[in-house]
Design brief:
It is a single chain. By secondary structure, the protein is α/β, with parallel strands linked by helices. It has a single domain, classed as Leucine Aminopeptidase, subunit E, domain 1. The protein is built from four helices and six strands, in the order ββααββαβαβ.
Length: 161
């Protein structure tokens, strides 16, 4: 079996050369159309359109740490894997970060993807530290059987001219 390759980069998740990206989502407890998606979800909505969120809504509530696959809308990826990375109090925990990473990698493997990019799940709205989140996600990726490349992206906004 091929060993999982892991790389950590700074940049924009939506600019990564991968087949599928991960979106840290809110568990579908609150309908997407009532939210003003921020962070990764907001960027997906602006650049990829609403279709991935409409598909996601049809899945109903997502248990904490689980993952759901949708199309990528207008984005150049084969799909988006949405993970429930924050609890009902809008906090990320070690459990939610680890379980979300593991679930996304299992789903990506089932779908035949070989290159996946993650944001730092739970480090935005979920309040977890970037360093701790990156370390937990890297540990889960290393322990996984995912047969490809995992990119963990720390968002860095574009430089202003």
């Amino acid at each position: 079996m091929e060993k999982t390759r892991i790389r950590a980069v700074e940049g924009d998740l939506l600019d990564q050369p991968v087949e599928v990206i991960v979106n840290a989502w809110n568990r579908n407890v609150i309908p997407w159309w009532l939210l003003l998606p921020q962070g990764v979800s907001g960027a997906i909505k602006r650049r990829g359109g609403l279709e991935p969120f409409r598909e996601l809504a049809r899945h109903g509530p997502i248990p904490l740490g689980h993952a759901v696959h949708t199309t990528a809308g207008r984005l150049p990826f084969r799909g988006i894997i949405h993970v429930a990375g924050i609890n009902l109090w809008w906090f990320a925990t070690e459990y939610s970060i680890r379980a979300s990473t593991r679930s996304a990698l299992e789903l990506a493997s089932e779908k035949g993807y070989r290159a996946i990019a993650f944001p730092l799940v739970g480090a935005g709205t979920g309040g977890a530290s970037r360093q701790k989140t990156r370390a937990l996600m890297c540990a889960e990726a290393e322990a996984s059987d995912f047969p490809g490349e995992v990119t963990i992206v720390t968002y860095r906004s574009p430089q202003k001219p």
